[in-house]
Design a protein that fits this description.
With 523 residues, the protein is mainly alpha-helical. It has three domains: 123 residues, Rossmann fold (3-Layer(aba) Sandwich), CATH 3.40.50.620; 163 residues, Alpha Horseshoe (Serine Threonine Protein Phosphatase 5, Tetratricopeptide repeat), CATH 1.25.40.80; 171 residues, DNA Cyclobutane Dipyrimidine Photolyase, subunit A, domain 3 (Orthogonal Bundle). Helices cover 48% and strands 5% of the residues. It has 21 helices and seven strands. The chain has a five-stranded parallel sheet with strand order 3-2-1-4-5, with helices on both faces. α3 runs antiparallel to α8 and α9 crosses α12. The C terminus is likely disordered.
Length: 523
């Protein structure tokens, strides 16, 4: 009698802990199910990416001699849930035991834990060792800390892994070179991403997605789909990054430019989160580029910090604070998410339109577009935390709840009262103007706050600070900006408040549309 390993869609690693427990006669099960593809309306490219990568991984396992039961979405006996498929296949095959590596989402782990008491054979949930920091190690880091901070965690991981270390000291004499990574992009040409032909497996998945998920957000075209669906493609895109992009990544990692969707970013987050690449292997390769003189310290340190700092840190926070973390809403934000988040043509704010266009076309936007454009707007406008989190989880190809929720609820929306971030990541249009060329072609005036053509980011920002002043006044990182707010005087503050209120009313009245005709009438 055989045992069985259930492999989830984001666990496409040959060294998966549960897979390592199998003997040659044991079986692997993989399933495309409606419940996972539609609990939020995931971007069409995201669904296509995961299903195609799953099918390719199953083919690789078969080529290696492993027996694989693969249930496609349209299989007539598919129960359309992972738990349902385990129960159905157990009845059909009478396996001796089941193994699964811990899922990345709390809801699914709860479903599996409940299943263990119903299924008549052992159902073991194995720790996911593909991350650098275990749950136990992160909980040890949390002990005695009133507020966990990524920087402290990051240094701890640097020391434990030896990455960018000279003995006990950080390479270059500093832990963090972020100050050097805030340059606006000049007129230079940026490298094109690697391309490869779409194979018959992916073509078949495209037809499946277009047929069954036609009402989901986003574009899905063969000519523009370039997410890696195999490990070899993932290695190819990472090799391109280290050779063509890493050298300039640090300088311009916060830059935003009209029409340049990827700049010098690595484009490996989907591959990391699917399991096609491991965090340690990419960090070691980036460090090697620095040691060999192929990339400067600010670029390599900035890249490694995103992987072993932020990525590991947000996963630790997610599992340490769930499930109540998901319900936090410290600032009581409840304004409905404007419809232009689903259709960028409904706003004439160039920064938002550009970030959302990139999202719709590519299931992608880089971290500053996510944090300081769409996230910043959602924060200062007071958008519903639940709606914003669902949007981020839906629209990005690399979004899974363990990484999306802390980044959105905690970092972008400050809804966890400072667990994730030491201050709100909010700004007026000034930051966007400094880091992009968006404002040059925008109908709104980024240097104005109270006029009819003032940038909405400006009056929403100051209104947000004024509204939450009492909450923020004890935060030392907010002291300087609140002093600036206090200089405004009551008349200017009332004008700002009126502008912010009128903006929200106009957007609500027009179904989420922010566009206006030159003479000021609603479209």
């Amino acid at each position: 009698m055989a045992r069985c390993c259930l492999i989830l869609g984001d666990q496409l690693s040959i060294d998966l802990p549960s897979l390592q427990l199998l003997e040659p006669e044991d079986v692997v099960v993989m399933a495309e199910v409606w419940s996972e593809a539609s609990y939020v309306k995931h971007h069409k490219q995201k669904i296509a990416l995961i299903f195609s990568a799953m099918r390719h991984f199953a083919a690789d396992l078969r080529d290696a001699g492993r027996e694989v039961i693969y249930i496609e979405l349209t299989d007539s006996e598919n129960s359309q849930s992972l738990v349902g498929e385990v129960e159905r296949l157990q009845i059909a095959h009478q396996f001796d035991a089941w193994y699964v590596t811990e899922p990345g989402e709390w809801r699914l782990k709860n479903e599996f834990e409940a299943l263990t008491s119903r299924i008549p054979v052992p159902f073991e949930i194995c720790p996911d060792k593909r991350f650098i920091c275990s749950h136990e190690e992160f909980n040890e880091f949390l002990k005695g800390r009133k507020q966990p901070r990524m920087e402290h965690f990051y240094r701890r991981i640097r020391q434990s892994t030896g990455l960018l270390m000279d003995g006990k000291d950080p390479v270059g004499g500093k832990w963090n070179f972020d100050h050097d990574n805030r340059k606006a992009l000049d007129r230079r040409e940026t490298p094109s991403r690697p391309t490869w032909p779409v194979d018959p497996i992916t073509e078949e998945v495209f037809e499946l997605v277009k047929t069954h998920f036609a009402d989901h957000f986003g574009e899905l075209e063969i000519d523009s789909f370039q997410w890696p669906v195999t490990r070899s493609q993932a290695l190819q895109i990472f090799d391109h990054f280290t050779k063509e992009r890493l050298e300039s990544f640090g300088d311009f990692q916060d830059a935003m430019v009209l029409g340049k969707d990827t700049l010098y970013h690595s484009l490996i987050s989907t591959s990391l989160n699917l399991g096609l690449l491991s965090p340690l292997e990419v960090c070691v390769a980036a460090e090697k580029a620095f040691r060999n003189g192929a990339a400067p310290i600010n670029a390599v340190e900035g890249f490694i910090r995103q992987i072993i700092g932020w990525r590991e840190y947000v996963r630790g926070l997610y599992w340490a604070y769930m499930p109540e973390y998901k319900d936090r809403n410290t600032l009581n934000a409840s304004w409905p998410l404007p419809s232009f988040f689903w259709d960028e043509t409904k706003t004439d704010m160039v920064c938002l339109s550009e970030a959302i266009r990139n999202t719709r076309q590519n299931a992608y936007a880089h971290h500053i577009q996510r944090l300081m454009v769409t996230g910043n707007f959602a924060l200062i406008a007071g958008c519903s935390v639940e709606a914003v989190c669902d949007w981020y989880l839906s629209v990005y190809a690399d979004a899974y709840e363990w990484v999306e929720l802390p980044n959105t609820l905690g970092m972008a929306l400050f809804a966890d009262d400072g667990v994730m971030a030491s201050k709100p990541y909010c700004s007026s249009g000034k930051y966007i103007d400094r880091m992009s060329n968006y404002c040059k072609s925008c109908r709104y005036r980024v240097k104005e706050t109270t006029t009819d053509d003032a940038c909405p980011f400006n009056y929403l920002y100051w209104d947000f600070l004024h509204t939450h002043r009492e909450r923020f006044k004890s935060n030392p990182r907010m002291a300087m900006i609140l002093k600036n707010l206090d200089r405004f005087g009551s008349e200017k503050l009332e004008t700002i408040k009126a502008k912010a209120t009128a903006f929200r009313d106009r957007v609500a009245l027009d179904g989420g549309d922010t566009r206006v005709l030159p003479e000021g009438r609603l479209l």
